[in-house]
Design goal:
By secondary structure, the protein is of the alpha+beta class. It folds into two domains: 3-55 and 274-407, no CATH class; 60-267, no CATH class. The chain has 14 helices and twelve strands. The longest helix has 44 residues, at 268-311. It is elongated and about 100 Å long.
Length: 409
């Protein structure tokens, strides 16, 4: 079959689609849905990868996050991890004193469970991210108003607080909050600073940080035990700092020499790798699930092509009578099936692009974009569906006896 014949078959298929617009739309609806899902899921996954990678890397190339178990996307903890003892303030002090490659250490104390609330003159904010820390925490932070608390304020358990930008917007619209007193879980605290929202954040997330001096936090939540240590290494000394922190914590936590660490040290790059490993598996699962729509669309294409063979039996008989070979008939119907699913694929790509754009408008911090692999996969799969599900109708048309076909009414 020549290129001109393929072109003629393609024009005939487009004419048939235009003549039976509603039937053709319903036929390829599954292909449209499947392709748009692949494009939409691909764009969202790409946006999430970019957003979360930027967030994790915003911790800094010289930052170590130390916790009693590995931080990141975890589906479940082992029994041994659940039984580990929390890190302590003394661990942080030991690291600061005995690790020459460490610039500074900031403990971060988590409160004891529950939903936390801040209130100011009738305005309320819930689900606060309360933490107790020290002034070293502010080394990589920028403030909109005021200042961060000092070590002296922590030692003397001063009732001062530094709040996140979204809490400021909710409680103090259009006024300078420094010096104002707010109610945090029933206790009054003086606002001395407002943190600027991080340059990168999770899509849809809010900056609801409420930071208290470490010992003020201990006084407010005497049952709080869980500490995370934020360790900043000196420039170019991250690997050495990690080794030093590991050695100090093994001594501090009395880990036998033949036992593994009962704590975890994470870097930004490690967390990025862990996240991408989970997301790659998620992407495969979501693409497989979206392929169900393509399967349904393929069955619809095969059904309509079988109807087309029946409708055009006499035409097939005439073509065979004037010399058309079986390969010509097969090529003609496969071309029509590919054109049909190709049009559905293009419509699906358009819908997927609209999903990507709509998601970007709904979540401005999610940098969605249609990745090349998703667009290529959408086109390839839609064409593949046409070829696979068009084989049976095409072979059925090619096997028709020309005499019987000419007699068909």
């Amino acid at each position: 079959m020549t290129l001109q014949s393929y072109s003629s078959a393609a024009r005939m298929a487009l004419a048939t689609i235009w003549e039976h617009k509603m039937r053709s739309l319903l036929t390829v609806l599954g292909v449209i849905i499947g392709t748009s899902t692949i494009i939409g899921v691909g764009s969202i996954i790409t946006g999430m990868d970019s957003a979360i990678t930027n967030i994790l890397r915003s911790f800094g190339s010289n930052t170590l996050i130390v916790y009693k178990f590995k931080i990141g996307l975890r589906f479940r903890l082992t029994a041994e991890e659940r039984q580990r003892k929390p890190l302590t303030l003394e661990n942080a002090r030991a690291i600061a004193e005995r690790c020459p490659s460490v610039a500074y250490v900031s403990p971060y104390l988590f409160p004891w469970g529950g939903i936390h609330r801040a209130k100011y003159k009738g305005n309320d904010v819930y689900n606060l991210d309360i933490g107790g820390t020290e002034e070293a925490y502010a080394e990589d932070e920028k403030l909109l108003y005021g200042r961060f608390f000092t070590s002296a304020e922590s030692r003397h358990r001063r009732r001062v607080v530094v709040i996140g930008e979204d809490i400021y917007n909710a409680l103090f619209p259009r006024i300078d909050p420094v010096g104002e007193w707010i109610d945090v879980d029933g206790q009054m605290f003086k606002v001395i600073g407002v943190l600027r929202r991080p340059a990168v954040a999770f899509p849809g997330s809010q900056d609801l940080r409420v930071l208290l001096p470490y010992f003020t936090m201990k006084k407010m939540f005497p049952n709080a035990r869980e500490n995370m240590l934020i360790v900043i290494a000196k420039p170019g000394m991250l690997a050495r700092a990690r080794d030093e922190v590991t050695a100090v914590l093994r001594l501090e936590r009395r880990v036998p020499h033949n036992k593994p660490d009962n704590f975890a040290i994470s870097t930004a790059e490690q967390m990025v790798e862990d996240f991408r490993e989970v997301m790659s598996t998620t992407a495969i699962v979501m693409v497989v699930l979206s392929s169900i729509g393509l399967l349904v669309g393929g069955i619809g294409v095969m059904n309509i092509m079988l109807v087309s063979v029946t409708e055009r039996t006499r035409e097939i008989g005439i073509r065979k009578a004037i010399g058309a070979r079986r390969s010509d008939i097969i090529a003609q119907f496969l071309t029509e099936a590919v054109v049909l699913t190709g049009v559905g694929g293009l419509l699906g790509m358009l819908l997927g692009w609209l999903i990507s754009v709509g998601t970007g408008f709904a979540f401005p911090s999610l940098p969605t974009s249609v990745p090349l692999w998703a667009a290529g996969l959408g086109v390839a799969v839609s064409v593949g569906v046409g070829l696979f599900f068009g084989i049976w109708p095409a072979s059925k048309a090619a096997r028709l006896d020309p005499v019987a076909a000419l007699r068909y009414e």
